[in-house]
Specification:
This protein starts with a helix and ends with a helix. The protein is built from four helices and two strands. The chain is α+β, with helices and mostly antiparallel strands and 109 residues long. The chain has a two-stranded antiparallel ribbon. The protein has one domain.
């Protein structure tokens, strides 16, 4: 995709975030997505190494589920993914809770 097309997509993401009460600019949304992808890849790759205990990350399953149909998408988020819910496990003092969270909330975390 051309850089201008990505800028339009991130503008839509930023606008959608604002409608949901999260005030992040275009560049902040882009950078957050890049950091989420980087963390996802780090956790995924650590689980492939033998002898390592692996890294736990509360959003790993949500990111895996979101990215699985897009196997090789570079850094642009899927256009229809912001409001699709994914199961997210959150650890609390009373145990692990399974909740459903739209990606827009994961981006805001």
């Amino acid at each position: 995709k051309k850089k201008g097309q990505k800028a339009l997509i991130w503008k839509k993401v930023s606008d959608e975030m604002k409608q949901n009460g999260y005030y992040f600019g275009v560049n902040q949304c882009d950078e957050k997505w890049r950091r989420l992808l980087s963390r996802y890849r780090q956790v995924r790759d650590s689980s492939k190494k033998s002898g390592s205990g692996g890294i736990k990350w509360q959003y790993y399953e949500s990111m895996r589920d979101a990215l699985s149909p897009l196997a090789r998408q570079a850094v642009s988020p899927p256009k229809d993914l912001l409001h699709e819910s994914s199961d997210v496990q959150l650890a609390s003092s009373s145990g692990t809770t399974l909740i459903t969270t739209p990606l827009v909330e994961v981006l805001a975390s």
